[in-house]
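Design request, tokens follow.
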């Protein structure tokens, strides 16, 4: 506390009022008055008040550090005790949003840590040879990794095998398995095959990171099961290790020029006889069986004619079915065949 504040406090504590009417104070003796002069009594009273003020000021100066320290200690104790009282009276507020964010961050850090720290069996690339499980080529002979030029020639061989199989009428699953088996047997164990109904793309990455890609597009289809069987035999010999790459290329070129074992007229007549046998099996009479044979030949030739327009096979089959239905309905309307037939 400053001297000015002490002085004001002392002055405020003692109220000095000049008496309007002289008289003795109750319970005290009257101050002596020299010669009956009232001014002398007032002067003595002022000196007494001044001494009292100075004495009080000195006492306050001596005792002011102790109360100040005591007040500070009391304030600190009250501040320290305040959280305890408030925690006892009410529950602390919980920031649910902050807690959920911390939990989400913890889970994210744990997940990223699992992905970054080490590779497990599930995150490793699956070898393409596993696609051959359950097929005739499930145990191919895996050669050493070839050079970049040899790898490109092997990809060309596999793509030509796939294109020939698609044109001969093989299914997409058979084509994919044959390509994977041929590449694996020639040393390309990390190929990737992308196959659609008429497009094949084969990717291969060399050991130094160079990417090789080969694509084939099938723009026509001519069912040739003899050629398809020869290609399957070629892939089987590659997988078993009985055939080298250069020999496989020469053999594939020979299969490309392979002729059909039977003439076209013989194949068409065979389709007609098959339909006639089916009509006879379903209870057809002597008129319905020849009609079925003729209808099969007409529908077969009609499909070959439409196929020259490169129309999708789905629409060709639909038109052939519609033409067969039209012929059968017309024959029933004109009375050539009876209704049960």
């Amino acid at each position: 506390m400053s001297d000015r504040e002490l002085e004001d406090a002392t002055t405020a504590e003692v109220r000095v009022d000049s008496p309007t009417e002289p008289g003795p104070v109750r319970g005290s003796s009257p101050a002596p008055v020299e010669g009956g002069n009232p001014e002398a009594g007032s002067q003595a009273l002022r000196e007494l008040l001044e001494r009292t003020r100075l004495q009080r000021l000195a006492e306050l100066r001596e005792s002011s550090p102790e109360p100040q320290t005591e007040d500070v200690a009391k304030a600190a104790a009250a501040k320290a005790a305040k959280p305890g009282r408030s925690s006892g009276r009410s529950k602390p507020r919980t920031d649910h949003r902050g807690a959920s964010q911390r939990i989400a961050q913890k889970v994210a850090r744990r997940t990223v840590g699992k992905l970054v720290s080490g590779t497990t069996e599930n995150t490793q690339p699956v070898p393409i040879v596993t696609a051959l499980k359950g097929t005739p080529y499930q145990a191919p002979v895996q050669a050493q990794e070839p050079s970049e030029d040899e790898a490109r020639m092997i990809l060309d061989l596999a793509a030509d095998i796939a294109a020939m199989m698609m044109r001969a009428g093989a299914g997409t699953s058979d084509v994919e398995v044959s390509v994977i088996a041929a590449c694996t047997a020639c040393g390309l164990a990390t190929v990737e095959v992308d196959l659609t109904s008429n497009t094949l793309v084969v990717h291969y990455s060399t050991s130094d990171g160079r990417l090789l890609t080969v694509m084939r597009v099938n723009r026509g289809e001519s069912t040739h099961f003899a050629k398809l069987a020869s290609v399957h035999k070629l892939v089987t010999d590659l997988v078993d290790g009985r055939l080298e790459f250069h020999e496989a290329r020469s053999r594939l070129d020979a299969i490309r020029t392979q002729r059909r074992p039977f003439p076209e007229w013989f194949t068409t007549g065979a389709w007609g006889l098959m339909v006639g046998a089916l009509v006879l099996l379903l209870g057809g009479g002597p008129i319905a069986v020849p009609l079925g044979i003729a209808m099969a030949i007409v529908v077969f030739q009609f499909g070959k004619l439409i196929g020259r327009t490169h129309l999708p096979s789905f629409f060709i089959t639909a038109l052939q079915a519609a033409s067969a239905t039209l012929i059968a309905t017309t024959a029933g309307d004109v009375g050539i065949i009876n209704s049960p037939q």
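Comment from the thread starter after seeing the answer: thanks! Residues 9-35, 84-88 have pLDDT under 50 and may be disordered.
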